[in-house]
Specification:
mainly beta, Immunoglobulin-like, five-stranded mixed sheet, 3 helices, elongated
Length: 419
């Protein structure tokens, strides 16, 4: 009996160890099979964002730091012209492009809240414009159904007039597989074609207003033309200065300071090194040759000339007189110190103070209320303005194509391989 019980325990332990080995092998296989992908960021002229990698589950991890660009507002990352979610699944190396908005316009906020472990996606659109549906967030064991505003499915043809929050809904019941069961898409609205998830995106076209050449489109969508042949008056220029300057008529000025410079000078002589020196030519030798015969006179002259040359002097012979002049340099004192400022500055308490003046720039021109401004001229609104009806045309944006009054775009993304 004890022998049977012992064999039974050994059998149970063996089965447990075998099960652990099999499970460990499966887990190790899954870990080794996981792969990371490289994500590159094209900021389109903004500050550089270095490439990153997905985690081992293939989830996109967007950078915490946003790029910056002069006079622009960063509005998120796009893949193939559509916004993409953080934490979404990808199965290849991709490049994301920054989306930028111009400053100075009125924007409304659209929050896409998919829930189920995803971060919210916050984007901004110009008021009274449409928002483009983002790339569907992808996750395992779930497929995305639709975006809802309140209790109703959101219509992406509608124009956004205020801040809204769109809530995502999921279907965890099944995936959509291709006929050969090799690929699947997480979004049921996509069809699988040649290993790709394909969908025709369709939105309403926008209306652009325009005027014929020579006419100007006003803010209230009218075409206006100014008859420049009518009488006009000069517009009044409005000047502006850079920060830190004060406007004075058409000039900009500001107080500036600089460090004075220290100079040395000589009250007498010239400055040479650390001293003041004078250079002077002095007569050191002379003789009269008037009592000598011509032959002896010539000999004496040559003698004095040679002697003067030896001294480094200048020999002069005139009216039977020989003279030797030697130039010498000698000290006449030490230099004096003085503090000076650049031209236009004055010394005040050890600092050079002055006023920097530049020309002001013309910011704009203004006209009296009953006039309108055109190229620095003011024209009477009642005599110089003509109006005509505005023209209309249908347009598509974001690389959509206008087809029969609608904006169409065939969108494709890589399908996921079934494992």
């Amino acid at each position: 009996m004890k022998e049977i019980k012992k064999k039974k325990i050994i059998r149970i332990v063996f089965i447990a160890l075998f099960t652990l080995i099999i499970m460990g092998s499966i887990i190790l296989f899954i870990i080794l099979k996981q792969k990371t992908y490289i994500v590159k960021y094209n900021t389109l002229g903004g500050t550089i964002i270095h490439e990153s990698k997905t985690n081992k589950q293939g989830e996109l991890i967007l950078p915490n730091k946003s790029p910056e660009k002069d006079n622009k507002i960063f509005n998120g990352w796009k893949y193939d012209d559509r916004f993409i979610f953080n934490n979404t699944l990808i199965d290849k190396n991709i490049e994301l492009k920054a989306d930028w908005l111009d400053k100075g316009y009125e924007y409304v906020q659209v929050i896409f809240s998919p829930g189920d472990g995803f971060d919210d996606l916050v984007v901004y659109v110009e008021k009274n414009q449409r928002v483009l549906e983002p790339i569907i967030p992808l996750k395992k064991n779930s497929s995305f159904e639709a975006w809802y505003l309140g209790n109703d499915e959101f219509d992406f043809n509608s124009r956004i007039e205020e801040n809204i929050v769109l809530i995502g809904k999921w279907d965890t019941s099944s995936f959509i597989y291709s006929k050969d069961d090799k690929y699947y898409c997480f979004d049921k609205s996509f069809k699988i074609v040649d290993g790709k998830c394909s969908k025709k995106l369709e939105i309403k076209s926008d209306i652009d207003y325009y005027c014929e050449e020579g006419w100007e489109l006003t803010k209230d969508n009218q075409c206006m033309m100014i008859d420049t042949s009518t009488a006009s008056i000069d517009a009044t220029p409005i000047y502006a200065c850079p920060d830190g300057y004060q406007l004075n008529n058409d000039k900009c000025s500001k107080n500036v300071t600089t460090t004075p410079s220290t100079n040395y000078y000589c009250a007498r002589g010239t400055l040479q090194g650390n001293g003041c020196y004078e250079t002077k030519e002095q007569q050191v030798q002379w003789a009269s040759l008037s009592n000598y015969s011509p032959a002896v006179k010539e000999q004496q002259k040559n003698k004095y000339a040679s002697s003067c040359s030896t001294k480094g002097g200048r020999f002069v012979f005139t009216n039977d007189y020989c003279a030797c002049f030697v130039t010498s340099t000698y000290s006449v004192g030490v230099p004096k110190q003085q503090t000076t400022c650049p031209s236009g500055y004055s010394l005040n308490g050890g600092i050079c103070a002055g006023v920097q003046t530049i020309d002001a720039v013309i910011k704009e021109y203004t006209c009296p209320e009953e006039y309108i401004n055109l190229e620095a001229k003011c024209y009477d609104k009642n005599k110089s303005i003509k109006y005509e009806e505005v023209k209309e045309k249908q347009v598509c944006r974001n690389q959509f194509e206008l087809v029969d009054g609608k904006c169409i775009k065939n969108y494709e993304e890589e399908a996921f391989k079934k494992q």
